[in-house]
Structures are given as structure tokens and as C-alpha cells.
Amino acid sequence: MQTVRDIAKLPIDQWPAALRVEPVRGAFDIEVRPPGSKSLTNRALLLAALAEGVSTLTGALVDADDAQVMIAALRKLGAEIEITPQVDDRGESCGNATLRVRGVGGRWKIEPGEVVTLDLHNAGTATRFLTAAAVLQPADAGGIVIDGNARMRERPIGELAALLRELGVNVEELGKPGCVPLRVSAMPRDLVGGRELAVPTTASSQFISALMLVAPFVPGGLALRWVGPVTSWSYIKMTEGILDTLGAQAHDEYGHVMRVRSKRIYGKGGEPAARGLDGFQYAVEPDASGATYMNAAAALVPGARCVQIAEGFGSLQGDGRFMGLLEKVGATKSANLETTEVIGGPQVRGFAQDMSQMPDAAMTAAVLAGFAFQDSTSDQHAPARSTMTGLRTLRVKETDRVAALIAELAKVGVKVEPFTHRDGQGAGDEGVTITPPPGGVDCSPGVPPVEFETYDDHRMAMSLALIGLRRPNVVIKDPACVRKTYPTFWRDLAKVYG
Predict the structure, then answer these.
(1) Nearest CA-CA partner of 104 in 50, 48, 24
(2) How far apart are CA 47 and CA 417, in angstroms?
(3) In a domain, 318, yes or no
(4) What's the domain range around 374?
(5) Hey, how many other C-beta atoms are within 10 angstroms of the C-beta on 19?
(6) Which pTM does this prediction carry?
């Protein structure tokens, strides 16, 4: 069976159906460059496609499936997108490119009566954002149908559809209630500028971000008033930050109301403009979620060192908080504006952590917890129980990630037990306790083989692969699923072998 080193430089279409991850022989010292942020790339892409004129995005993640799905959809809606791949001084690419985007000036290019269907596969970000942005079609268009694969047809989107209906938009459910496929019609011509929407607690913060991204193209903008605890606030603040950077006014009124509108006073030719954005230039930050895997690899191996080159890293991304968790587990970390550095401690320690502001890092943290021992000189070989809370959104991701962690970590003797509770805002929440097996995960040379299912979920594949750095005979099924957000993951992981 092929190993990580075997496929490190192979194109994705030559990767095997299953891949063996070999243990490292000792402390490693590596340098990697994480790909661009998927979350920021897709936000900036949508805004550039809707803006008036030409925008330039550098460091944008384009080789990943989610970004390719978004690019294909925006082109179908009339945006012109040119892609120039970027490589470093060694000729290596991390999947990034410079994008030159000619936008549509706030209205998608759809012919009268034409129905446009967008198949967005399992790209959750693109599906949520484009469902809201579909309202910006011409009034005489025939509608935009938002669809996806079998898993996407199970993921809830009814809360966003309900909010669009509050704005007077006709949203027709074509399949299972509350899920795609949906047909979305144009925004009403008589929509009152500055309309305020009451937003209850949602299953995904992407519903709120989707409305925020559309707001600059609505005359007078939108105001979103929270009537319950807000889901994944860090991602909403990310959207607020990129809107402010790129020419919109996004104002958070003490965590109660988010007001978003265009800053434009004059449009093309000097006529009054109550909506829209002008073309812009934007440098996409490296992906904080992707960076967690290689940092965790260093934290798992005593004395190992990982430096990630990441100019401007983490300023808008909630997963930048993962560096603080690494200190809890016993690693040493440092960061500046250009790099982050993690050095593994003598052993992994147990921890308690609220993951609500960095839910995409929960699987990485769970793997670390599976190798945790007591932080006590008198009982250093006793496994330590860890606790993570803020996980309720994990049930509606690419797979049910809580169920997947329970099933897969059990294969190496790690017990994952879910529990329910209420978070600090009083909302129903979910957490897990993670207990390593007595004596720790068996890492002896003759340990029985284990095959990890990945559920077509990139984050499950990358997290579970880390187990193989310590435990022999680990196999990852469907390794190609990492191309969703980190197409160079296996190349970067291969560096730990020297």
C-alpha cells in the first residue's frame, strides 16, 4: 500500500483509494506554507463578482474543491475570473493564485425568463452564500436554483430561506423541506432600504454571513437584530472585518444589531448610488483551520518543531485561537506577523476548551486529546480526560462530525462521549469528553492495523492522519477528500519524514 511519502508529489488523480501513514522516527523540524483561507477566499470572491469594475485577489485558494465550485458558479452568473497560479521560490504551490475578477455591478447577468441552476456539490459555504446572493438576479429572470450532492441535500438551510422570505423574496423548496434544491427569485423592487430583520439562533453562522455579504447591494443595506444567542460569532466578525476592508460599512452595535450597507455615495458616471462596491485589491490570509494540522503534528511528537510561513496570519479567523489550545496541551508556541512556530512538549496534556469560536479545529483537538496524559509528576503515565464544548454545529457539517469522532477514535481505544448543556448565552449546546485507553493509545510495532473512514470529509481525513504519526499500521481511506480545502496536505505532511 502506498504511503504519504509515495504520493507526496503525485497529482490528485493518481492518489490511491487508501493511504498508509507511517509513524515518525523522532522529532522533526519542518517549514510549511499553509494554503489561503477558504472562508476568506469565498467571501472575497463573492464580493468581487458582485462589485463594479475589476478586483484583484492575491493568495486566494483556488486548487481546492470548495473554491473551484464557487468560481464555476460565479462565472455561470456572469462574473469574469482570470486565474494566475502562485508558486514560492522553490517552485512549490500551496494551491493559491492571483485572481482578477470583473464583477457584474450588483446584478447577475441572466437573460429574461432564464432559469440558472447551480450544482454546488458539498460546498456548504458556497451553498449558503449563493442562496442569499441569488436575490440579486434581474427582476425578469426566471430564478436561480441552488442544488448540491446527496449530503448537501440533507444539510439544513431552511432558516436562511425563512429570512429571505421575510425580505419578500420568493423561495421555493423543490425537494426535502428546509434543504436544497431551492429556487430563489429576485429581491422585490420595493424593498425598503435599511430593512431590519429579527434573526433567531441559527444552525450555522453562514446564514448570517450570507445576508451580510448581500447587504451592500441592497439599497440602504440591511440590519440584523439578534433575538437569541449567536452561532459561531467569530465567523460573523470575520465577515464584518472583510466588508469593512473592502468598502462596505459593517457596524456591530454591542452584539445586538449588525448594520451593513454600502459606503458608496456616487456610482458610475457620478450618478447617486445607494448600493454596491467598487473593485478592490485584497490579500487573502493563510488558512488558520488548515494550519492546525501541522501545528498539532508538532505538538504530538516530543521536541518536534513546525514553522508555518503565514504573513498576516489569523487576524480575521477564529481558528487562530488554536495556538492558545496548543499551550494547554504542553506545546511551546510563538507567532509574529510572518510566521508561527510550535514545538512539542514532553507529552500531551489533557485540557478543557470551549470550541464554539473555532469549531473546525475540534477534530484536530480531539486527536490531541486521545494522546493526553495527566500533568502530574506523581502519575505521568495515567491517561487524562479532556472536555470540549461548543460543538453543536458539528452535527450539520460535511458529515456528522461528533458521530464520526465517536466511531473512528474508538478504533484505537479512545472513548468519545457526547453530552448536552447550555452555553454562556443560555443556548442549547453539545460537548464531548475524550478519554484515552488505560495506558494510552497502543503504539507498539505489532499493533493491529486500523482503517479510518473519512466520510468524504476533508477535516476528518487530515485529523485522523495525525494518529499515524504515533501509532503504527494506520490507514486513511479516500485521502483525496483533502482537496476540498487543502490540496497539498499530503505533500506537507510528508515533510515530517525528512
Answers:
(1) 50
(2) 41
(3) no
(4) 4-31+286-293+347-497
(5) 23
(6) 0.89
